[in-house]
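U., I forgot to send this yesterday:
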Amino acid sequence: MPETVETGLHLNRTLHSFFRSGSSHRLRIAINLKGLTYEYNPVDLRRNEHQSARYKALNPQGFVPTLEIDGQVLIQSPAILEWLEERYPSPALLPADSSDRARVRAIAAIIGRDIHPLNNRRILEYLRGTLHCD
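Result:
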């Protein structure tokens, strides 16, 4: 059953996300694995909604995902994932064994730093627009 009440207070969670964003996708998976409820606010990167003044007031980087939770604004999926794991440790996202956790973190780093940038919209626009690469 999804957790919606903590110490008698209703938790307001809004996830600002784009359906094709790998970072957003990772975060949606983790939130759902933890059974947490949230409101989904789509941010359409194709329409540059992430560059709007309204969105940049929330996340000055203009990136997705952004998680609002009870007045806090959390940005950058690795930081949000760590916050979720610390705040809601069960079910755990990482294995109990430290060597296994290191392996999982290494795989995540490969995806987030080595593979992901090559299909990142911002990087692709730079390659196409500035460097004129096809």
